[in-house]
Each structure stands twice: as C-alpha cells, then as structure tokens.
Write a structure and sequence with these properties.
By secondary structure, the protein is mainly alpha-helical. It has helices at residues 16-20, 22-38, 54-65, 71-76, 79-86, 93-110, 116-137. The longest helix has 22 residues, at 116-137.
C-alpha cells in the first residue's frame, strides 16, 4: 500500500492511481496483461497488429482515469483518440469478458493492491469501460465523439485498513 488510511481521517483518500503504485505499477500491469493477451486464443487475434508501445499507452490511459497525470491526453489526444481506437472493431461479449478477466489476472500477478475497496473500484472501472468500448465498437454505433477522459474514484467505500 502507498499509505495507511482509516475512515476516521479527515484528509481525502489517495487517488486510485496513487494507491495502485503510480505509473510504474500500471505500466508493469499492462506489460503483464498484454503478455497474457498475446498467449490467449480469443484475444490474440484482436491485438495481433498492436504497436509495441500499446501497453504503455494503456498504462497512461489508466493512470489518467485513476487520478494521475493527464499523460494520455497530452500524448495521445484523450478520449477522442481512445474512442477512435475502438470504432468498428465489433468487440464481442466473450472478448470483453476475457479482457476483464485477464486484466484481473495480471493485477494479481504483478501485486496490485488486493484490498477489497481498491479491487472493487478497479474492477468497476474495467467493467464500465469495457462495456462502453464494446457498445462503441459495434457497426453503426454513433457514440459521443468528444468527451473528457473519465475520472474514476473510490465510490462509496474509501480504502480502509483496520
């Protein structure tokens, strides 16, 4: 853990970005994740042509979403660029679900915080984001083209260590 936090403190809890361990931790996560993807029969074909920098870009995206610096927006163009990367891909529900499962496997493998509050927020974003990506990727989809990068937080339960 980055810091200890109890529900009795008056200071705001750390961001999910800080709790996860910052950009280095998210980069390690994405490198492990895409290693799993390349070995997966269902997802490997979807990512067959990905850039060698793709894991770093996804780490930048997650960092920004989880309250870190706006590196994805500065380097890649924010939400509009992310949306363009998914348009017309026709992501299936089995692919979406496998993506979420492999990301959770990678989080376990690299030792992302395992406390229930963090993992609930982390998986909450994975579910929300991948469902939106699946919808936006379908033929004929007409998603909102310009939106900010979402900012994901703790939700109802702040991180707590007893």
């Amino acid at each position: 853990m980055v810091t200890e936090y109890t529900s009795n403190e008056t200071a705001a809890p750390p961001s999910l970005f800080a709790w996860a361990g910052g950009l280095d931790a998210l980069t390690t996560l994405c490198e492990a994740f895409y290693r799993l993807v390349r070995a997966d029969d269902l997802l490997a074909p979807v990512f067959a042509g990905m850039s060698p920098d793709h894991p770093r870009y996804v780490a930048l995206w997650l960092a920004e979403v989880f309250g870190g610096p706006a590196g994805y927006t500065a380097e890649r163009g924010g939400y509009p660029h992310m949306l363009r990367m998914h348009l017309g891909k026709a992501i299936t529900e089995p692919q979406r679900r496998r993506w979420v499962n492999l990301m959770q496997d990678a989080a376990d493998e690299v030792g992302l915080p395992a406390d229930p509050e963090f993992r609930a927020a982390f998986v909450g974003y994975l579910e929300w984001g991948t469902r939106l990506a699946r919808e936006n990727s379908q033929p004929g989809a007409d998603p909102v083209r310009r939106a900010p990068v979402p900012r994901w937080g703790w939700g109802v339960a702040p991180p707590y260590q007893g």
